[in-house]
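Late entry, written up from scratch paper. The run itself happened at the end of the previous shift, but nothing got recorded in the book at the time, so transcribing now.
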Amino acid sequence: MRSTVLPGASRNVAGCGPSTHSLVRSRPLAMSAQATATVEPSTPAAPAVKSSTQFLRKHMLKLAPYTPIEPFEVLSARYGRKPEEIIKLDANENPYGPPPEVRQALGTMSFPHIYPDPETRALRKALAEMNNIPVEHLLVSLLVLGWG
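Output as recorded:
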């Protein structure tokens, strides 16, 4: 494919620089031969990748590798205890499980394995009715302050 570059315009196909989309055209423009220069697109050879670690900062190579948590079954076999007797604190898990009310509510859900409505329509409608405000004025978020 041949590209026509307008006189005085820099050819920048990487998307960097001023208004690249207006400088490089995929078809020749209706201009005289003296006013345009035809350029063959060139594809630079990609450098050989030796290892994915070459893209990491050097200090990251010195970090200890991730150690995954061990499930109850592994801990139970190792320590000779029932899984119910083990409380794990290494996985940000609640050792007590959900309250009875939550278990009951989850048991009545039609599709507990499907993501809920991302716009929280039912919750926003109930909150709007409860507070006598328009539903459009409500935003419900799962943002946890201090994380991320």
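Helices lie at 20-23, 72-79, 100-107, 121-131.
(Scratch paper discarded after transcription.)
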